[in-house]
Amino acid sequence: MTTPSVLIDCDTGIDDAVALIYLAALHREGLIDLRAVTTTAGNVDARQTAINTRYVLDLCGLPDIPVAAGEARPLVVDLVTTPETHGPTGLGYATAPKDVDKRVRSDWQALWERQLGDETRLIVTGPATNLAAYARGHRFPPGVTLMGGAYLYPGNTTPTAEWNSWVDPHAAKEAFAAATSPITVCSLGVTEQMLIDPARLATLVDALGGAPVAAILPRALRFYFEFHEAQGEGYQAQIHDLLTCMIALGRVDYEATATTVDVECDSPLLRGTTVADLRGYWARPANARLVTAADIDGAHEELLRAWATLAP
What we know:
Layout: E1 5-10, H1 14-29, E2 33-39, H2 46-59, E3 67-69, H3 83-86, H4 108-115, E4 121-124, H5 129-135, E5 144-147, H6 163-167, H7 169-178, E6 183-186, H8 188-191, E7 195-196, H9 198-208, H10 217-230, E8 237-238, H11 240-248, E9 254-259, E10 261-263, E11 274-276, E12 288-294, H12 296-308
Parallel strand pairs: 1-2, 1-4, 2-3, 4-5, 5-6, 6-12
Antiparallel strand pairs: 7-8, 9-12, 10-11
Domain Inosine/uridine-preferring nucleoside hydrolase: 6-298
GO biological process, one term: purine nucleoside catabolic process
GO molecular function, one term: uridine nucleosidase activity
């Protein structure tokens, strides 16, 4: 079997950072070839998400993986970020050093052009801004996995909308309309089940041993725990993007159903609401594989296994 090539497009806050550490571990094991990381504006602005990404990869011993900041704002609507969820710079109580900014690139579309072959796995864990912008002038990438949406499930931003889809609803709508093969969709109904609490975090940090990246995790996750507790979710954190990466790479068992997805953009009350035509009313071709269940226990085992490989 060939080693999967991976490009991730993220908006590195806290759960994206956990996902990046996992991908770094797989890359260092030789289980994937992490070709590049690009970032969108979402949790914080696009430049800061790129700085956070560069910092996390450096701490994981991967300074040569290229990182580029993508589109600075959503396609149509004004940018809204979420410092109350991920902290003022996106990493909770941790902060990337200022000099990291010098090593962040801006040629994100060129990176995609070079790295997106037919076998590349493109994982999008932030708003779909870069994906939609790229598809306007290029062939739609095959093998896309997207974290976003809430399907017959409460939203986490409005009663019906998930954050990524709400931040740039026009991009999500364009991406599903442009898809030439079904996008694998990991939505809140599944990803909210992937939880880390203080006890599990302590186990994971122990597994990392003296790896430099272990030092920032308690400060980052403590902010995320506090946010979720303030939202009535308990002193724990939902790690959406990590589970999305595992599903994209087939590292965890999951179930999915083929369906047609569309996104509401124009209604002020329903902005970012994602709809899956599970009964075929629209009579349109399937543009999504909607993940409906995942082996959460297996995901935790896989995370611990992978992170242990980063220990010195």
